[in-house]
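Build the 3D complex.
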Amino acid sequence: MPYDYQPFPYVAPPGLTAPEPRHQVVIVGAGPIGLAMALDLAGRGVPSVVLDDNNVVSVGSRAICWSKRSLEILDRLGLGDRMVEKGVTWKVGRTFHRDKEVFNFNLQPEDGHKMPAFINLQQYYVEQFLVEAAQDNPLVDLRFKNKVVAVDRQPDHAFVDIETPDGEYSLETDYVLACDGARSPVRHMLGLDFDGELFEERFLIADIEMEADFPSQRWFWFEPTFHPGQSALLHKQPDNIYRIDLQLGWDADPEVEKQPDIVIPRIEKVVGHRDFRLDWVSVYTFQCRRLENFVHGRVIFVGDSAHVVSPFGARGGNGGLQDVDNLGWKLAAVLNDQAPGTLLDSYGRERAFGADENITHSTRATRFMTPGDGVERLFRDQVLALAAKAPFARAWVNSGRLSRPCIYPMEAPDNAQLPDITRPGAVASDAPQGNGWLLHSIGADMTVLGIGCDAPDIKGALGVTVEVNDHVRDRYLGDCAAAIYLIRPDHIIAGRWITPVERPATQARIDTVLKGAP
Amino acid sequence: MSLTTTPNLTDHDGFYEELLAAHRDLTPDQSAALNAQLIMILANHIGDRAALSEAIALAKS
Ligand SMILES: Cc1cc2nc3c(=O)[nH]c(=O)nc-3n(C[C@H](O)[C@H](O)[C@H](O)COP(=O)(O)OP(=O)(O)OC[C@H]3O[C@@H](n4cnc5c(N)ncnc54)[C@H](O)[C@@H]3O)c2cc1C
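Done.
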């Protein structure tokens, strides 16, 4: 059954009739990133106004693959269970060359995590769930058909000019969060530009509806016989909707390729029959680029406005949610005078690092999939040929390395005897705790975990004494008997010690983290 | 320096001959393909990331 696009109501904003009091946060864009940003801030007691020029959710599936980390973030916003319930859970990706399987991967080989490795869920559902949560939240003031046309940056605030069906008005705000997508009008208003690479290749992206029993796996083909010389992807979504991505080559004409009488025969070759309905089709070219700086005084870029990647690896939306995760607690701490403004610079530094990792992976995958003539194609084709006869070469076959959170570089207290996966800079790994989960015990401020010992009592931090089980031991202790972990509100490990640890060490680390030091 | 840059084979001339023999009767495209596969096979065998970077730098110098 196709998605029923319901327009959200436009309500004339108060600013049209009388100037509004200065706001703390104005968010431009109600895509997944702007909406998640507003909910994250609301969870920290910070109200925001969210402005969107449109009044419907994403047209077409667009982002479909949501990572474990995104689900953990959305879980904190109260949407994790709803996402998993509606989504298609998967963890195995299979890669074919011509008609032979050359490679497969399992993204979550271990259990003991609340969230699965990946789910597939159309971006329109994600946006719908976020909009509903935002509409229910008294701290989120969501305004559809409110188009931002100008941003005026001042040293300690900003003005935003807005067009509505009833005329123009202005808002004054402490911070503007530009979540206005890849084409970001705010970026252009500030005269900023992206650095990086554009790819010439064109891809046809389509949603089809059909009754089928394809397994919940990601299927990727290099040079399949049904689509010679190009690549293809087939992915299952809820509601019997399947997503098909077909590489078209650089000289394809997007307007021609979008015509149903061209698209339908192509898809027929992929699925082997004509018993499907075309739901959405679009032609994209991709880029892997970012802004040099994400923080421009009182205007901060978040999500696709700050960085864009090709979708092979699902690093766009997932990367953007990690921006939200990183910025929310920092902005709340600065607005509440719990931290100096320098903490916001650490958002720019850390997320630029994350964006670079995403860009590197996405660029490599795109290059492998769409090699240039000459030596690029030579090596790509020979890796595929070699992979068919020598298993070791399969590691080079790159159909996208799927989104994982980066590990931030940190000069944090650490002890090398403790497990590598929970080193400072990494996301705290989830683990079962009684009937619940470790990540649920992490608080809105700093959290100090006592593992194998009581959590010390530290000012400004929530102490949590963790129940030690096999998963906790593997992930947090290794061969050590007891350890203390300092966890930021975004679940990032900011330091760890083997006990006994002096209280001042943990306290001092909290102070440096709040200043935005690495 | 992890790349071996001193003679390290017992039968240089024999290997050279075998390598050329493998390319005999190949078109330039087939030769290029053979070389590409050989590079990937040998890179995997060497398995030392730093040595591979040094090898690329040496070849480019
Ligand atoms: C084909 C395709 C497949 C993808 N697959 C995946 C995937 O599997 N996984 C994944 O994680 N990501 C994927 N992505 C990327 C993902 O769609 C984006 O990263 C994500 O949409 C970014 O969210 P955003 O909120 O930053 O921007 P957007 O979703 O673009 O939202 C921006 C919002 O700002 C609004 N806006 C723009 N200008 C103004 C203005 N002047 N005033 C007010 N509002 C304005 C727009 O109306 C829009 O609602 C894919 C993208 C594409 C195109």
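The mean pLDDT of chain A is 95.
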